[in-house]
Description:
The chain has 373 residues and is of the alpha/beta class.
Amino acid sequence: MCTVRIALIWVLGFAGLAKAQTNFFIQDIHVNPDSSVTITWPAVAQIPYHVMFADSPTGMWQNFPDGTVTAGSNVSSLGYTDTNSLAVTQRFYKVRKTRLPVIMTLVLDVSGSMDPRRGPPPGGDGTGSGGGLYLPGAVTAFINDFDGIIDKVAMVTFSTIQQNVFYGGAPAQPTQPFKSAIITAVNSFLYSGTTFSQGGLTNGLVLENNATIPTGQNAVKVVVFFTDGHANIVQDSLICPPATLLNFGGQDPPSSGYSLFDPVTGNTVFGCGATQFTSAIDGSMKALNGPNISADALFRSVQVANQMRAAGITVYSIGVGTGVNLTFLQQVANDPNAPGYVPTPYDGEAVIANDPSQLAAVFQSIASKILYQ
């Protein structure tokens, strides 16, 4: 009697991400000359896979005692050979993928242009993206895709200054449980001020670097950066005199205007007589004006993102509205489409919801990247 063997495909999934599951499948099932059966499937480095069997699709599924295998850093597929198949007339197989824990920090723009009243007509006046109308729902669905038991999350907001909104531990770091606290916080956001992207990213870097990972365990470190505009704030010492640490800028090109802000409170500062600042781009002294400040703000933000990649952190960028700077988002994520792209082991992706109502779908696309790739 011929032995009938059918391969079943299964992967641990999350609600709302069913499409991502279709990318995982058994590549081949092969009966060997000794009648043992070898199955192979695509694999992701450092992810454990568990091979299981049953005598019928509705029967009791069991783990093979030696059926847990993990892909090495340069392995794109794995295989397992069932040497006990001779004793059965049919056997069903499935492969279960156990992903690594995600340690993630959300870095979210809460500047004034996010205010729902400044969004596209008919609901707003068209002077901003109005992304704040859709951000709470998008973040709620996004956070619910993650596992409150194995994953850890923190959240940073930024406008004229940056602020750690949700975190745990000492030192501050991503924590658990996280879902209800983040959902409550994002539904309470107030949108005002300018766009200190570098500050938000810097806090994200610190939180991720502080993350506690038990000895012998691996985890995926991720920062999700979200904005609706240009980086336009720099923090540095200006010779007022005396030398004073300030946040300065706040205007997008081509405006030449700028303002000075207290780096702790975000309040406007008056009476500083500085006319130049030290550029991080080339170390030269440059005139205090909107275009110079904005160029430096973009450059400094990308440098922080580069520090993240050097620390093993992958950055994903999400933009909303028609005024967002796609090139900037690509550089922050080191998206392969970025100008001058140089690959690293921790490249992310940049995506934009030009229509704010599509923001939830864009967040979901990034969730699938984090969880399944």
